[in-house]
Design a protein that fits this description.
Layout: H1 21-39, H2 43-64, H3 71-82, H4 94-108, H5 116-126, E1 152-155, E2 162-166, H6 173-185, H7 192-206, H8 213-228, H9 238-244, H10 246-257, H11 265-298, H12 306-317, H13 326-333, H14 337-349, E3 353-355, E4 365-367
Antiparallel strand pairs: 1-2, 3-4
Helix pairs in contact: 1-11, 2-3, 2-9, 3-4, 4-5, 4-8, 6-7, 7-8, 7-11, 9-11, 13-14
Amino acid sequence: MTYIWQSAYWPRFEWKFDNLASRLATVRLDQGRLIGRVESLGFRTREATFLRALTDDVVKSSAIEGVRLDEQQVRSSLARRLGIDIDGFVTPDRSVEGIVHITLDATINCSEPLTTERLFQWHAALFPTGRNEWGHRLRVGDWRDDSGGRMEIVSGAFGHEKVHYVSPPADRMDAEMSAFLEWFNGSNDLDPLVKAAIAHLWFVAIHPFGDGNGRITRAIADMVLARGDGGAQRLYSMSAAIERARLGYYEALQSITSKEALDITSWIGWFLDRLGNAVGDALLTLDNVMLKNDFWQAHATGDLNPRQAKVLNRLLEGNFEGKLTSTKWAKLTNASQDTASRDIADLLAKGILQKGEAGGRSTAYELVMDFPTHTSRSE
């Protein structure tokens, strides 16, 4: 099998812009809509949206590689570094602090050059103990040396492995990464979205580190996207969109890297589709945020108790399973059945809840969504 880096013309990538133009236009339009909606929100809501997107990005980028991070630790680390006050702070461990550092450095300091030293710092931050999550010792803060054999991407049980990709030899790392960084930091006329897709593919094709290449290449792509957004706060999570299509992600990369052809149109298209999904998900999240804000503004003088506020927030956030009944209310709030019934009756009287169509033992309740909405707010 031959690989993309074995082409005599590597790394002169080619793509058919006409096949990508409509996708680029759609994503750009949605990005503009997203920025416009966020600007209509108050400072604290924008701050919360930024924190949520970054938390999702950190957690999902690691999940793509099979590494499970504690979401509360990630959120706490981000909040402390950004100076955001949150409830429920927990002390993050070193591995969480490392990936959070990389994410913030790539996005907030996106205008700074990407250098060998910076990449080495990222790699060392990702593996502070010198070992990966499975206990294997790594060459940390330096390019791989292939002392344990060539760098391969494999799957399957021991003795029956299938080789999907073989990276360039280690003695080419200095030259390969020098070419990549010169292109990355150089001025060109590339659309930032296309450049992010190319950077993602190019870096992962080189695979310069013994581990962590996937997480670092996604940080690099986020860096380009942040530059394209003018350094604006990150409002969407590309890694979350990729994680939901994890199998397709590896298939899309393999289909390009496992042959000598340098036409990467299909990869750029796949990347733009995932980016479109990420922005679309962020728009839906903001719709929910704005709906929640409007609801609480409309019921600001409702004199609700903590149990009522808790259940109403769950309903507004859309993560309530099934229909709301008095039994579910009692379990969710650790209250008696009588207390649950009184809470619900109070909300019915205030016009905040209404009974569903079914009656008797099947009686369920739903939010009354008839209240004023707003297009701009200040906090």
